[in-house]
# Entry
Amino acid sequence: MKLAVGGDHAGFPLKGPVIEKLKAWGHEVTDHGTHSPEPVDFPDIARKVCQQIRSGQAERGILVCGTGVGAAIAGNKYPGIRAAVCHDHYSAHQCVEHDDVNLLCLGAQIVGDRVAFEILEAFLQARFSTAPQFRRRVQKLHDLERWAAQEILKEDAR
# Structure
């Protein structure tokens, strides 16, 4: 699988082992930084990862920050991106199976390497369900994105 990976300075200690494990599992990984523990703003890294997913150059993405929360907030600002914070195995596969999540957000200050690897494995092996109720709900998310964008345009025009 082609994957886009990034993280801020708080996620830096976990990002390296995550990338090594992903490559060891045979995935093609693009590392969007950061490449040091020097402070960096996570929205800048999230932009790069999300752009790669949106363009189809990556099938899924992984962002690592301190808690995963900031990364998820940033990721969910982009149309077509469905980001989820997952710190357990169940959520990692369920979010893909039911919600077609394409951006996994991890908290380096919450999980260690071993748990992160279990989460990654569950996330990457999961597939979006063909059950009609899940397809319908994700379509409603797409519809909500379009509606919100139109509402913003109307507000800006006023």
The two ends are 45 Å apart (CA to CA). The chain has six helices and five strands. The chain has two domains: 2-127, 130-158.
